[in-house]
Amino acid sequence: MIRVTPRISLDESELEESFIRASGPGGQHVNKTDSAVQLRFDVAASTNIPDDVKARLVRLAGSRMTAAGVLILVGDSYRSQLRNREDVRERLIDLIRDASVPPKPRRKTKPTYGSQQRRLEGKAKRSEIKQGRRGPVSD
Fold this sequence. Notes:
Blueprint: E1 2-3, E2 9-10, E3 15-20, H1 27-32, E4 36-42, H2 51-61, E5 70-75, H3 81-100, H4 113-133
Antiparallel strand pairs: 1-2, 3-4, 4-5
Helix pairs in contact: 2-3
């Protein structure tokens, strides 16, 4: 079990890792070894994540989430497969931690008297500028 928060833990069997060739510089090493890691986590089917966290996780993941609800993370920052695995798992944990924090509710506020006055003064000044551009009025 991977501990994410005190109330959320992930089962190792829910994570599917595949190893692929990394892109970029590295010469023969990069061309011969499968050091990049592609981690797939089925958020929709996970029983360990509450529904409210799942909804926030879908929003946070963005394009990394498939239509079927599978989160795909790719790690190829390091030359070592082990370090890439650790990096991808840490990014998954961070993403779930961020999703587990509920957003603070917005409190309605009113603009201050001073800000209202500044806004109206700006509108009046802009109106004068535009009126100055008008040509003479003919009857």
